[in-house]
Each structure stands twice: as C-alpha cells, then as structure tokens.
Write a structure and sequence with these properties.
The chain is mostly helical and 104 residues long. The protein has 2 domains: 2-32, no CATH class; 38-103. It has 4 helices and no strands.
C-alpha cells in the first residue's frame, strides 16, 4: 500500500529523506504485525493485572487514581474471565464426566 502511494507521486524509497524513510518504515511495520490473538491476551492480561494491583497498593495514590486502578482491574478481570470462560467450562465438564465414569 505504501509502495502504491510512492508510485502515485512518482517517488522511490531511495528518494525519501531520512525522516521520511523512518516514517515509511514505521508505517510499513504496522502492516506486517500480526493481529492480537486470544492466546496473546491470555498471556498479557495476568501480567497487566499484576501491574495494576501493584500500583493499587501504593499508598500515595490520589482518590482519582485509586478509582481508575480499581476500574481497570475490574475490566481486565472481566475480559480475562470472558476469554478463558469456555476453556474453563470445558475443563469443568471433562472433570465432571471423568468423575462420573469412575463412580460407575
């Protein structure tokens, strides 16, 4: 897409200034990055929650920051529960069925 833009204005990458090349490369990298996956979120959210909870334990927080952190923690926990819910439900059903098979 970026190359199409350069072609349209009759420029080559080599014609760009150093700043323009840097911007071009940053924009180009946006096209090559993969989308965030559910697995990425499963890895990220627990770390994010830990960081928020550590900040919440700072007694120097203002009332506003405390409210913000509590809200952010609640939202992150809800997202994590939503994302991991089906997996946890499958595991629960599997364990329940295995227990019933053992008892019969």
């Amino acid at each position: 897409m970026l190359q199409k833009l350069l072609d349209k204005i009759n420029l080559k990458y080599e014609d760009l200034t150093e700043d323009e090349r840097r911007t071009y490369n940053e924009w180009d990298s946006a096209f090559s990055r993969p989308d965030v996956s559910i697995d990425d979120l499963k890895k990220f959210l627990p770390t994010y929650l830990d960081g928020l909870e550590n900040q919440l334990n700072d007694y120097a927080n203002s009332k506003e920051k405390d409210i913000y952190l509590k809200s952010a923690i609640r939202n992150a926990k809800m997202m994590l529960a939503f994302i991991t819910g089906p997996e946890k439900r499958r595991e629960w059903v599997k364990q329940n069925l295995e227990q019933r098979i053992k008892n019969n």
